[in-house]
């Protein structure tokens, strides 16, 4: 069993007890524990079930590489799934539950998958797609959906808040072990601005646990001195509990800092995302121990050797009373020594090497520990806990020589340098035969904007494992990165660490053993799965990864990748470097979505644009809709009134009397200069240079492909100034479009533009009584003679300076009044007060849409979708035939666009008066090769017309204008169809009398 | 996330401040051009692995367009220069050749 030792524990404080629950049971640990160490102290080795076979799983590691011991942490609005117990600091009141089992962790029905494992081979998921077809839908999918997956996504809104911050430095050092501390010291001493990040809450990496002398001092003393000096350097910033998760272009690094994870609800942000721009980056990210592939290597009680000594030294937790050590390198002997020092039994060290030697081996031998060379584990015995191991020859096929009872196994397959951050931006790797590992190639680093190396690896991350060599490597990485390649080669050549390859244990293992050797513990991928993939023809490591799901779990293969690709290389008969690695992508460890979102949630998810009248709309019960970043009133429902009824009332009231629309969102761009007319003639499809001062003209803009892009009314303010109105959503885009042409193509033209959209409030006064209202407000002549249709004039109304445009998007007598934004609300309220006697009522965007559709006016984004030309919409009158050139003219001349054989705009009236559904297609005879019904057009705008009291629509129909009166069929969402007669798109006031009075 | 220096205002800006405008030095073909010419202008974009000339706008800064020469594979930036030019200036070409001796314009 696993238990707390009576003494020791470098990181725990035995005076501070912390109570927590696991699956509802109260347990206790100490301050300084991780959740994993506290669970082990309570003999809770079984903590989860595996993804696919629901096998019992225990704690395997002691750091972020942990694949098994994931839990649901917290509950309700603080629930977070898939949290690694090994990196979760224990706190009083912590609540954890295990995942992926039913009905309970101890008794899980899903474990039947384990016994059916031979029917769930590599790629079984894809194989279920093939045949029979019906089986996927009715059999496989429901079963797979129910049994797969780890934690459940939280349902409640996250109660915590998160923040983001920026930081800048010359040198960013990632990793607070000996190499990282030394790199920070050497860069800091030179005066560089240094940021040093460490993912754990404490400094020093492995050195304090492994107890080697560093720089002639005890590791602990060296650490104290280094930290003291770093804290005293004003140009060095240290951040513990802060994980650098990704390296991006030009020295950009994201790091997630834990702030209140262990004190939920204390008022601080839970986590902070650092967005760091570094001159260069030192990755002193250490190395991760590799598991060995022997049968039953996933049974709870089998742990990584270094993790086991972490628990003993850091937390005074013994994972087992009798631990068998199995290894292919010297490092695991440290675990044997630590266990023996703690008074625990080590019955045997199984060393796969034929003749282990060296100081650590001798030390173990001197302590009387039995060492068996050339031996391997044939099979681990036990179910929910290790009960013993069967020993065999590494060189053989697994014939059992001896059985030894034990309750834990410590394994070490060597170390994989953490090369993730080096690789994120393209750093290349070399295979090192002595270490059996991929190392960063200093000759092929990721590059910065200036072509210099952006990342420098140091210490174990560069394959350097001996303390004094690590110091040298850190020193050089911090101060003199250009000479690093040379120094590293020398350090690597000098070090005595050798890790012979042991990819499968025993090397000739029988099939039944290989089917129980786990490579990827989290995604349940075994040696036999990778070998099957190779037999089925998967040669690329990237394809094998996706087919078998090796390395695709939340741990992203930190333990499994090297072992997996080594097995693949063996199966393919190739060398490991030829097979290569899969791509290392950020994040290094999972980052919670809240941290990435930061403060961008709720009201401030994105900027919100409000018109000067927005407050009035809100206080008068407007129902809003988003239009770009704007919020516009859709309608103003009265108490008890549905939105549809409100829209009807607003339309009828405007057509019969007087309506008021807040049109302030309309884009307003000033184009000014001696060449402004010439410029607008290029921008618009029609002529703008000939527009007289004081007049307005409707204009269309196309992109260079000839497709309609925006529309609006242009007013000529004076000899060299035009005011271009754009659509509400298009103002910024069109202003950018103008600037693009002026800056990049016609930079010799004398034209200036200014986007004045927010400088003015624009209020549309609409309806037969519009003139009467403005006359009552008084201040300027708004008569038909002084201000005819499509003219504008300047003056004042109700004492407010105003520009009045006689333009109409409703077909009624209409004035759009622009006033300074600061007086927009005052003007709006003056209109409402004075308009009471005329029955004035505000209307929203939906009434605007209905009225423009009744008039057959197009709307950018409804009638257009980036594939529609002005000619398709019957707007040939607005496309100049005289102009030699304008943007889109050449595009429109392309044969497909100029062909008469296109879908063209017409109106539709349903025979039964109903409203055609949005997005409906017009059906044609027959069906296409995919068995889909042929179509001959589609609806673009469809509304109930309160004025005409039946459904009206506009749409594009093949040869539409030549088919007036024909009856066509639209499909409906309920599977039926609706018949409609092709009609003129102008349904209301075809001659335009009403707007021209 | 790239950083580029705006040659107009001198600010070294992050990509979040910039808007991309794709390939630089395109020649516009308008009415009267052949289909092949128009296609070359409208659709035929270079997509090299290596040296590339691009348009960028300092959209959330000074608002000016500028051009950048950079390597699409290593993300090295050889230089930025004003948009008011029809071909890369000599200094930019020199900077490219200094790092990519085999590169051909």
Automatic annotation (TrEMBL), chain A:
**Residues in domain Aminomethyltransferase C-terminal?**
904-989
Q: Is-annotated flag, keyword Oxidoreductase?
A: yes
Q: Which GO terms describe its molecular function?
A: sarcosine oxidase activity
Q: Which domain of life is it from?
A: Bacteria
Fetch the InterPro entries from UniProt: 2Fe-2S-bd_N (IPR042204), FAD/NAD-bd_sf (IPR036188), FAD/NAD-binding_dom (IPR023753), GcvT/YgfZ/DmdA (IPR028896), GcvT/YgfZ_C (IPR029043), GcvT_C (IPR013977), GCVT_N (IPR006222), Sarcosine_oxidase_asu (IPR006277)
GCVT N-terminal domain residues are 614-883
A single Gene Ontology biological process assigned to it is:
tetrahydrofolate metabolic process
Query: Which UniProt key words apply to this protein?
Result: Oxidoreductase
Family listed: Belongs to the GcvT family.
Q: List the PANTHER family.
A: AMINOMETHYLTRANSFERASE (PTHR43757), AMINOMETHYLTRANSFERASE, MITOCHONDRIAL (PTHR43757:SF2)
Q: What NCBIfam families would the database entry show?
A: soxA
Name of this protein: Sarcosine oxidase subunit alpha family protein
Q: Tell me the organism.
A: Szabonella alba
Automatic annotation (TrEMBL), chain B:
GO molecular function terms listed in the Swiss-Prot or TrEMBL record: sarcosine oxidase activity
Q: Which InterPro entries match?
A: SoxD, SoxD_sf
Give coiled-coil spans as residue ranges: none
Q: Which Gene3D superfamilies match?
A: Folate-binding superfamily
Q: Which domain of life is it from?
A: Bacteria
The Gene Ontology biological process annotation of the record reads: tetrahydrofolate metabolic process
This chain belongs to the protein called Sarcosine oxidase subunit delta
Q: Which organism is it from?
A: Szabonella alba
Q: What is the lineage of its organism?
A: Bacteria, Pseudomonadati, Pseudomonadota, Alphaproteobacteria, Rhodobacterales
């Amino acid at each position: 069993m696993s238990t707390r030792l009576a003494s020791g524990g470098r990181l725990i404080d035995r005076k501070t007890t912390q109570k927590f629950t696991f699956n509802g049971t109260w347990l206790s640990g100490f301050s300084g524990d991780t959740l994993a160490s506290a669970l082990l102290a309570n003999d809770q080795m079984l903590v989860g079930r595996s993804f696919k076979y629901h096998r019992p799983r225990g704690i395997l590691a002691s750091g972020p590489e942990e694949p098994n011991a994931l839990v649901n942490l917290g509950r309700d609005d603080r629930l977070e799934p898939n949290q690694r117990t090994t990196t979760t600091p224990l706190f009083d009141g912590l609540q954890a539950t295990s995942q992926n089992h039913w009905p309970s962790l101890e008794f899980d029905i899903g474990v039947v998958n384990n016994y059916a494992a031979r029917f769930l081979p590599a790629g079984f998921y894809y194989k279920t797609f093939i045949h029979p077809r019906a089986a996927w839908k009715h059999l496989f999918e429901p079963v797979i959906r129910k049994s797969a997956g780890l934690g459940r996504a939280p349902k409640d809104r996250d109660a915590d808040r998160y923040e983001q911050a920026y930081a800048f430095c010359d040198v960013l050092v990632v990793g607070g072990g000996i190499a990282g501390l030394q790199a920070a010291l050497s860069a800091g001493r030179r005066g560089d601005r240094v940021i040093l990040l460490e993912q754990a809450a404490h400094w020093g990496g492995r050195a304090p646990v492994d107890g080697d002398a560093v720089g002639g001092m005890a590791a602990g003393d060296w650490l104290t001195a280094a930290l003291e000096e770093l804290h005293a350097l004003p140009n060095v910033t240290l951040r513990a509990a802060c994980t650098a998760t990704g390296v991006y272009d030009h020295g950009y690094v994201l790091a997630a800092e834990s702030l209140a994870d262990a004190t939920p609800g204390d008022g601080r942000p839970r986590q902070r995302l650092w967005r760091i721009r570094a001159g260069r980056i030192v990755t002193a990210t250490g190395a991760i121990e590799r598991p060995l592939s022997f049968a039953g290597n996933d049974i709870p009680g089998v742990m990584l050797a270094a993790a086991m000594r972490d628990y003993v030294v850091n937390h005074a937790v013994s994972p087992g009373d009798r631990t068998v050590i199995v290894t292919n390198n010297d490092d695991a002997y440290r675990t044997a020594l630590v266990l023996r020092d703690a008074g625990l039994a080590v019955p045997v060290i199984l060393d796969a090497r034929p003749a282990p030697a060296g100081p650590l081996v001798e030390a173990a031998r001197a302590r009387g520990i039995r060492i068996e060379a050339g031996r391997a584990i044939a099979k681990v015995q036990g179910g929910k806990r290790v009960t013993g191991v069967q020993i065999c020859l590494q060189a053989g096929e697994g014939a059992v020589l001896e059985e030894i009872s034990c309750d834990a196994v410590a394994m070490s397959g060597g170390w994989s340098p953490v090369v993730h951050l080096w690789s994120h931006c393209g750093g290349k790797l070399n295979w090192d035969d002595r270490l059996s590992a991929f190392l960063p190639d200093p000759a092929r680093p990721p590059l910065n904007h200036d072509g210099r190396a952006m990342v420098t690896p140091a210490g174990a991350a560069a394959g350097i494992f001996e303390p004094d060599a690590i110091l040298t490597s850190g020193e050089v990485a911090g101060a003199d990165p250009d000479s690093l390649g040379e120094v590293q080669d020398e350090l690597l050549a000098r070090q005595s660490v050798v890790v012979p390859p042991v990819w499968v244990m025993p090397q000739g293992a029988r099939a039944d053993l290989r089917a129980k050797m786990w490579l990827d513990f989290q995604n349940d991928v075994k040696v036999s799965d990778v070998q099957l993939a190779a037999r089925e023809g998967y040669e690329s490591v990237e394809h094998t990864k996706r087919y078998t799901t090796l390395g695709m779990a939340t741990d992203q293969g930190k333990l499994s990748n090297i072992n997996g690709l080594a097995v693949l290389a063996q199966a393919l008969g190739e060398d490991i470097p030829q097979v290569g690695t899969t791509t290392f992508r950020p994040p290094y460890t999972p980052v919670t979505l809240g941290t990435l979102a930061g403060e961008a949630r709720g009201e401030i998810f994105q900027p919100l644009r409000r018109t000067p009248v927005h407050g009035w709309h809100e206080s008068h019960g407007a129902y809003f809709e988003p239009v770009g970043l704007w919020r516009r009133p859709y309608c103003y429902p009265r108490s008890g009134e549905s939105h549809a009824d409100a829209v009807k009332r607003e339309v009828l009231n405007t057509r019969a009397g007087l309506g008021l629309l807040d049109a302030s969102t309309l884009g307003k761009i000033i184009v000014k200069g001696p060449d402004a007319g010439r410029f607008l003639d290029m921008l618009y499809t029609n002529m703008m240079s000939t527009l007289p001062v004081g007049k307005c003209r409707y204009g269309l803009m196309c992109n260079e492909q000839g497709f309609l892009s925006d529309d609006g009314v242009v007013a000529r303010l004076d000899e060299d100034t035009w005011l271009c109105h754009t659509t509400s959503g298009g103002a910024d885009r069109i202003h950018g479009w103008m600037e693009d042409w002026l800056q990049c193509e016609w930079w010799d033209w004398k034209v200036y533009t200014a986007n004045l959209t927010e400088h003015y409030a624009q209020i549309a006064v609409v309806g037969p009584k519009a003139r009467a209202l403005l006359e009552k407000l008084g201040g300027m002549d708004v008569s038909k003679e002084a201000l005819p249709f499509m003219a504008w004039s300047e003056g004042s109304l109700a004492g407010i300076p105003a520009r009045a445009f006689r333009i109409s998007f409703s077909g009624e007598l209409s004035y759009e009044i622009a006033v300074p934004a600061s007086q927009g609300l005052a003007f709006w309220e003056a209109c409402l007060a004075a308009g009471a006697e005329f029955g004035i009522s505000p209307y929203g965007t939906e009434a605007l849409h209905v009225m423009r559709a009744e008039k057959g006016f197009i709307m950018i984004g409804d009638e257009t979708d980036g594939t529609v030309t002005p000619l398709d919409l019957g707007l040939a009158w607005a496309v100049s035939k005289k102009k030699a050139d304008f943007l889109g003219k050449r595009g429109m001349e392309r044969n497909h666009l100029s062909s008469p054989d296109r879908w063209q705009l017409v109106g539709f009236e349903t025979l039964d008066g109903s409203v055609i559904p949005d997005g409906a297609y017009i059906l044609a005879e027959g069906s296409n090769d995919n068995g889909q019904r042929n179509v001959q057009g589609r609806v673009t705008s469809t509304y109930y017309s309160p004025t005409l009291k039946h459904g009206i629509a506009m749409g594009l129909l093949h040869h539409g204008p030549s088919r007036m009166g024909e009856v066509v069929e639209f499909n409906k969402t309920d599977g039926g169809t609706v018949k409609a007669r092709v009609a003129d798109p102008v349904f209301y006031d075809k001659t335009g009398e009403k707007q021209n009075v | 996330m790239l950083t580029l220096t705006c040659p107009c205002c001198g600010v070294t800006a992050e990509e979040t401040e910039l808007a991309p405008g794709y390939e630089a030095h395109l020649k516009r073909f308008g009415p009267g051009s052949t289909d092949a010419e128009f296609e070359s202008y409208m659709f035929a974009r270079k997509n090299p692995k290596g040296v590339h000339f691009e348009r960028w706008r300092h959209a959330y800064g000074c608002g000016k367009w500028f051009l950048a020469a950079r390597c699409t594979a290593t993300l090295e930036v050889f230089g930025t220069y004003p948009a008011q030019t029809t071909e890369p200036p000599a200094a930019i070409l020199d900077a490219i050749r200094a790092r990519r001796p085999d590169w051909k314009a």
